[in-house]
């Protein structure tokens, strides 16, 4: 593999993971929790970043050194677990992809003022077009990188038009006035939960960047992915904080739009449309790519024709949104399940890290595994607390 191709795949995997995380839900969550917690939300973001790194660095390294996809690893750790994991990932992926397609439709509506259903259909066609190419892998890498840079640039522009209190944000990130367990679970689950946990690692696997000799670049790429998503989260948080501290209430029907309109005026709707479209379309691509990657080992025909299955996945998501709309109840249920999928998936990977029939003579760093177990236990406890709170209230 040429160095330029390899470097593109490494960066592409990082941005596939990052832009998969940054969907319409990501934007809404950030605005909602900023209004609820104010500058203290910075602490939640910091904790979630550390937990995200603990998840991804373990997952990516074990997958790379084993040269197997997550479902194969899971079946070796516990017979049948790979099928359970694949089922959870695909079910969640389909439900969230319907929401991602809806977000893309709303983005087109904000930019051009057309019906969001039409916008969703057009967006679906664009996503399908990428996978019709025989160079789909390379196109995915380049497209997600470009859209990632667009997202960061536009949100930074908005930040400096909302004048957030940077000093207070830094202070409360270190010494928060209030801490919200549900916010931590939501952020970690939304950034590295469900299919996102494996998106970048599976992309590197498909690109052939595996084995102990590539572990340093695999680790680097995993952290780059988290940092890219986190940069977007931090700047969006600052933009929202500028609105909150000025006394302006977030729009109830679309809180993430508020800082764009407040900071830039009517033009802000167009920029918001560009942001949510870029966030949504890249999430559609990442979700479809990763969800189908969980099927490729179950039948040779799926592996051979994976891009057509990806196209079908996108087409089904688009048609469901266009005909039925966003299934809110399903999304809530799957969102809750994602809080549990992450610790289950992480525990499987951590157990695999010390199975010679999976990782051979590779020695997984004890500190890294310890970091992973802390995250797995913490997320399990926080998820149970969140679900109990949700059911009780």
UniProtKB/TrEMBL annotation:
Entry's transmembrane regions: 37-55, 76-98, 110-131, 143-161, 181-205, 226-250, 270-295, 307-324, 330-354, 366-388
GO molecular function: cadmium ion transmembrane transporter activity; manganese ion transmembrane transporter activity
InterPro entries according to UniProt: NRAMP_fam (IPR001046)
Membrane topology category: Multi-pass membrane protein
Superkingdom of the organism of origin: Bacteria
Gene Ontology cellular component terms for the protein in this record: plasma membrane
Pfam families (UniProt xref): Nramp (PF01566)
Keyword annotations from UniProtKB, A to Z: Membrane, Signal, Transmembrane, Transmembrane helix
Primary localization: membrane
Biological process per Gene Ontology, one example term: iron ion transmembrane transport
Annotated localization: Membrane
Signal peptide interval: 1-23
Name of the protein described by the UniProt record: Manganese transport protein MntH
